[in-house]
């Protein structure tokens, strides 16, 4: 398995340069290219489960990266639209065509803007998972935003983290037995790992300014209906929407309405809380794998070509059999004469 890590400078054409840290897994010759855009304050390494899954598939090459001001990337951003331009710049730096873009939570929000501005030749499909719709787009979203903002002022780490996981995971998941520690529930085990600094979920803003800019982009995020309508007029995007039935961050019915508005290629319903890429990681990865393969432009052309070739061979065989039958009939007539 080929691996590459490094930095690309994006935003030069927007007078807003940033060095984004990225990690690349898989062969450059792989047919399916997938770039992952993570949620609020998350580094690219938070896609670890997905990295391990797709590293095993030789026909996939994937890229994870740190958004501006997160992890190893510098600079800051105050808008999800700005981050969308960064994602597109990164795809260009990778020299990818027909890329598949996957975003979850705030990364899904970024993908809506990517859908609105990306050039046709750069994209094969877009998968938007549990996207943050905006703090004031629905009363339930306002409640979530209020709770998240409130956790910034909770000094008790146990109470703070418990508030987070109650929002991001379903009750069934948190109350189920931990695989690694059967004496505790997954919620309890997760809490203990966090308190002992062993939790896989990390929040990696580089500095207070980066933290502020990320939180600001979260609260300020909104998408006007004109953009949803524009996306709906671009069938080549082949958008898949992953909606979680037990999501306390994103309203399920609101997301279903948006899916219809943008004329999504597919709408996937999953029995999960908000962090479906962790809670139902196998289902999440399989959805991505199947969606990419199903929509892959090169795969479609290849299948069409093969179908035409098989038809051609079938017709040739049919003509050959017809000629033999005709010759047999002629011989029978000769005998009868």
Report a brief summary of the structure.
48% of the residues lie in helices and 15% in strands.
Unreliable segments of 5+ consecutive residues = 298-337
The largest pleated sheet is described as: 8 strands, mixed
- From the spread of the alpha carbons, the general shape counts as globular
> Approximately how much helix is present in the residues?
40-55%
Count of separate DSSP helical elements: 13
- What percent strand? 15-25%
Order of the strands making up the biggest sheet: 1-2-4-3-5-6-7-8
- The assigned structural class equals alpha/beta
Radius of gyration: 25 Å
Order of helices and strands: EEEHEHEHEHHHHHHEHEHHH
Q: Could you outline the blueprint of secondary structure elements for this entry?
A:
Layout: E1 3-10, E2 18-25, E3 32-37, H1 48-54, E4 60-65, H2 80-93, E5 99-104, H3 106-117, E6 123-129, H4 139-151, H5 157-168, H6 171-175, H7 186-195, H8 208-220, H9 225-232, E7 239-244, H10 252-261, E8 266-270, H11 276-279, H12 281-295, H13 297-336
Parallel strand pairs: 3-4, 3-5, 5-6, 6-7, 7-8
Antiparallel strand pairs: 1-2, 2-4
For this entry, give a set of tags:
48% helix; eight-stranded mixed β-sheet; disordered C terminus; alpha/beta
Write a structural description.
The chain has 337 residues and is an alpha/beta fold. Helices cover 48% and strands 15% of the residues. It contains 13 helices and 8 strands. It has an 8-stranded mixed sheet, sandwiched between helices. Helix 1 (48-54) packs across helix 12 (281-295), helix 2 packs across helix 3 and helix 5 (157-168) packs across helix 7. The longest helix has 40 residues, at 297-336. 38% of the residues are buried. The model is unreliable at 298-337 (pLDDT under 50).
